[in-house]
Write a structure and sequence with these properties.
Elements lengths: L2 H22 L5 H22 L6
Helix pairs in contact: 1-2
């Protein structure tokens, strides 16, 4: 796994955790959730596009 893919995977995991934490709050911030989810989706799309590219080496 390339370091770039690893970093994106770690970012995706951190975003998941932030989303779960926000959802557990008594009054979740819907705007923050929306931003986190959009960012998580962008990271997921980027990971998906990397998986379709041929591996160097």
């Amino acid at each position: 796994m390339s370091s770039h893919r690893y970093n994106l995977t770690q970012l995706h995991k951190r975003l998941d955790e932030q989303i779960r934490t926000e959802l557990k709050r008594r009054m979740p911030d819907s705007l923050r959730l929306l931003r986190l989810k959009k960012l998580r989706l962008r990271v997921k799309d980027r990971l998906h596009s990397l998986s379709w590219q041929p591996q160097a080496g």
